[in-house]
Amino acid sequence: MAGHRKGEKAAVELLDECWDGSLPIDPVRIAKSLGVKVLDTYLKQNVSGALVKKQGEDPSIVLNAEDSTTRKRFTCAHELGHYIRRAGEREHQQRSRRSRRRAWNQRQLGSAGTDASSVKEHP
Ligand SMILES: [Zn+2]
Asked: Could you tell me the distance, in angstroms and rounded to a whole number, from the CA of residue 95 to the centre of ligand 1?
């Protein structure tokens, strides 16, 4: 599918820009290099993570503290994908409407099943 190919291209470009080529790739480090905080927190059992963006604050990725390291790595990379896609969208539509952004923020927070004030920094 075209969507997948676009995602792969974006991932390759991101690694080109932000990664030195060593393995395993650490999505937490990549996120931090982009100014995205990564936090471990307690989420509903069926929620692995979320991208959280509050108005006027830097975005952060929350991960379920009870997931395995491998699972968290995957989740972090996945949420980073959402972040990259949204950053790309922002470039296209220079003026995004405030109300729409607020709606998006609330949706993300809702899906995280968490209150962002209860999260703690990823080590
Ligand atoms: Zn997702």
From this structure: 24
